[in-house]
Write a structure and sequence with these properties.
By secondary structure, the chain is an all-alpha fold. The chain has one domain. The protein has 5 helices and no strands. Helix 1 packs across helix 2 and helix 3 crosses helix 4. The radius of gyration is 16 Å and the shape is elongated.
Length: 80
């Protein structure tokens, strides 16, 4: 947090909140991330084939990449 405040010029309280937000985002379990993104992308009007392709790409890009999940596995996370 101190480093973020120093390198960005942000006040310490704001830097602490930014660091906390980033850590919270990356600590999300894969299942929680998939459900959250599915809901967000649905709200943007995307259909399931588009959504699952986007989510699969995003999972590969995460700091600690999730295992490769097929569309069927993603669908099961969302719908059970």
């Amino acid at each position: 947090m101190e480093r973020v405040a120093l390198t960005t010029g942000l006040p310490r309280t704001v830097a602490a909140r930014v660091v906390d937000d980033v850590l919270t985002f990356y600590r999300q379990p894969t299942e929680q991330y998939v459900r959250h993104r599915h809901t967000a992308l649905q709200a943007e009007g995307k259909n399931n084939p588009e959504i699952f392709a986007v989510i699969a790409d995003e999972l590969r890009m995460r700091l600690v990449a999730a295992p490769e999940l097929s569309e069927r596995q993603l669908r099961r996370i969302v719908y059970g």
